[in-house]
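Case study.
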Amino acid sequence: MNMMAPTPAWGDMILPDRVRGTLYRDPAIFELELEKIWYRTWVYVGHESEIPNAHDYVLKSIGLQPIIMSRGGDGQVHLLLNRCTHRGNQVCPKEKGNSPMHTCPFHAWNFGSDGKLLGYAFPEGYEGLDKSKHGLGRVPRVASYRGFVFGSFATEGPSLEEHLGGAAETIDRLCDNAPQGEIEITAGFLKHRVKANWKFILENETDGYHPAFVHSSIFSVADSAIGGLYGAKSTALTRDYGNGHTELDLRPEFRKRDALLSWFGTTPEKLPDYVSRMNAAYGEKKAREIMIDGTPHVMIFPNLFIAEIQMFVIQPLGVNDSVQHVTALQFKGAPDLNRRMRQQTMGSVGPAGFLLADDSEMYERTQRGMEAHDTDWVFLGRGEHRERRDDDGFLVAHATDEVPSRGIWKHYRSLMEQP
Amino acid sequence: MLATRADSELMHDVEQFLFHEARLADEHRYEEWEELWTDDAIYWVPANGADIDPEKEMSIIYDNRSRIGLRVRQLLSGKRYTQDPRSSLRRIIGNIELLGREGDDIRVGANSLVFESSARGETLWGSRNEYTLRRAGDGFKLARKKVALVNNDRAIYTMSFII
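After joint prediction, the assembly is written out as follows.
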């Protein structure tokens, strides 16, 4: 970024009910987003269950930066920069594995699973090199919430709990659906690339206006009860938790149905093992409430989307280049439910998915639409007249209203205006 | 290795079947394509390698016969926007080998290269394919098709046509 360039006038580009197309189109804006969002705020990186044992590692990213998520010998999770402190070579080329040591192939510097420099070739060539100052770079703040690991490149700032705010409860709600209270990420990821800005994905995840149209093809041919959740008469809600976190709260519809596992389009008869484990874990009354409400549909800013049965991680590659990493959520202690979650997820998402192939088509078409500059506004005013506060003080409105987009942009503006 | 005359005739019939299947897919002739499949069919496009366990790990496509039908009905609905307008496609199926026989089933291996043109741009899809063909009357039915994309461990664009 040219330091002499004038600071963009964010207030001219982001109004409460509309934003400028240039925000999705301008490479200079994208560079600023890396600096002020991706390399500053809490960003979701991975799940603890992906590295269950000491010295397990998996390659991840924050913004454009390559990260090794590694479990040290003492069990602690580290977010290490995948770059040798000697001359910058990529230290770890394998997607995942288990190793107490990462040896850089360039000049054989080697690092522990905690990132510490252990040694290097031909040590007599260095005099008095302080190994403790040449460990792998690391994401300075690492924190985990119910197994979900986040990193922040800011050495100071709000804690992860403060960042999650009211949205933390949605992760609790998700974990409650597991008989053992834990989520596991074990099914591998589909990686779906789109020629579109990452914010189109971010906003679409809690947009309840599009499913009736973008997904009408699958709703019309499959025996699906999803379509009704997003109709004009739906009692479901859109919610803005603040800090950019947004939700499509489908519980009002599921509570009206008052049927166990209706949220998942199935019945207790089809998943008897799961139901009995839930009853044993929580007692019948509480288990019944959980199995009626189901799992959340929540977008944790800027990149973690929990969509009932699956999880997406948004990775930005460029102003019009993004990847959606997606996998089926797996509930600890629920083998019969997990199998169904994988089957449904495989049908719905990824490059050939019944749902996501059409969503991604819209992302790419909207990106192309942004090239028309004449009237450069994206209009986000749906439902402004019927916004209200829920019992917890969060802004809510109808399932098809654009409360989530307005909440995301309000938070985005506050981040971009920070020095 | 010398093939018998019977193998040569079988090979010819197998090739003609694969070329026909390829043309139906290229030309979006979904109903005719669907008719190729047996009732116990599996249409499988793995992710993250060619040898994953599709019962435990995510695949790009892992369709049984009923889900193949759903996929076709969605494509025919007129609202499958990712294929409306349709991708223009042509593919080459080559390096065809007979891999084995079990009863009425014939296992076949091949390489495939698909050229796709769409509003997003031009995309090449290279894969190793494995087919299980089953004798049915004078011809074959398709019992299993596995498409192991060369780049299935990386981020790939939308692939909503018949691969």
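Observations recorded in class. The mean pLDDT of chain A is 96. The longest helix of chain A spans residues 335-348. We will return to this complex in the next lecture.
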